[in-house]
Each structure stands twice: as structure tokens, then as C-alpha cells.
Specification:
Elements: H1 3-27, H2 34-43, H3 57-94, H4 98-119, H5 125-128, H6 130-135, H7 140-165, H8 169-207
Helix pairs in contact: 1-2, 1-3, 2-7, 2-8, 3-7, 4-7
Amino acid sequence: MSQNRWMQSFITHYGYFAIFVLSVLSSACLPIPSEVAYGFAGALCTTALTGHAQFSVWAVIVDGTIGSLVGAIIAYEVARSAGRTIVDRWGKWLLLTHKDLDSAERWFEKYGAISVLVGRVLPVVRSFISVPAGLAEMKRGRFAVLTTVGSAAWVALLAGLGYAAGSNWDRVSKDFHDAQYPIIILIVLALAAGLWHRIRTVRRHNAS
């Protein structure tokens, strides 16, 4: 059974609990395609798939938002508490120093709000944006509010698309999934460019 089919079966059988669990996992850096979870749940708010409305759209949005916040806080707290320790133990292998964390913290003070807010509505990025926020020790209250707003917008968008698609959700889901590939490619290229720049910076620093 494919991952998407498994998720749809999980949601069909376990309802709001399944949506909550998948939301937590997706926001805690696990590869759970949230567009499938929320879109399918939105489709189940209609009578098109099962002959009756299994969910309420508003309940799906609230459930998914709370689950996303819980998962994001878990990732944030792990990164915040372990960041300095990771640098102490494996910093030279990861090309990270405490100075880098200090710089990241200053950067997040200036641009962290827009990074978290926008990051929560970008495929792939939304699952990992909590990590740099935690490493930079972004203020907890600020992080929680921005995560809640961004997550609510993302869940509402996908649940709304699923509701509008109804019985055509499988086709819409495939189109949405295919549309993510350019984003993934751009992220990989950006990470590769960042890594190469970081390696060159470290080499120059060591040479001097």
C-alpha cells in the first residue's frame, strides 16, 4: 500500500485523532505529506467520497493547526536544547561553531518572524523551519504565535481545496504533489550552494 493510500485509510478509520497524529509528525520533521492528509480530510467533509460528511471543515482546521503547533514545538525545543551540545560534539564535522549560532540568533531577531510565517505555508520547508528557529533560540511566544497563524492558513487552504475537489480529490492530490518537485529542486540547489559556500569559508578561515 502506498503512503498516500495508507494515510487516507488511517484518516478514514481514526478520524480527527489520525489528523492530529499526522499533523504532529509532519511538523516534527518527519516526511509526512500534509497536503494529502488535509486535502483528503477536506474531501471527507463532503458527501462525495463516502456518501456522508465524515468531518467538519472548521474542526479539521482546528485539529490540524493544534497538531501542527505541537509537532513544531517538539522540533523547536529539541533544536533549542541540543543545538549548543551538537556544536560542541560534532561542530567541526557539521561545519558549525558557536559563532554561527550567535549569528543565526541575530538573523532570526531581524527576519525570524517572516521566515517562520512564510515557512509554515511552503511544502517541505514547513516541516523543518522549527529547527533553525530553535537553534537560533527565537522567543518561544513569538514562535508559537507565528506557527499557529501559518499552520492555520496552510490547513485551511488544503482542507478547502479538498472540499472543493470532492470526488476528484485523487486527481487534485496528484497535481499538487507533482507541483512540489520544482520547490524541492530549488531547496536542494540552495542547500548545495550554501554548503559549498560554507566549506570555502571554513577553509579560508583555517588557512588564515
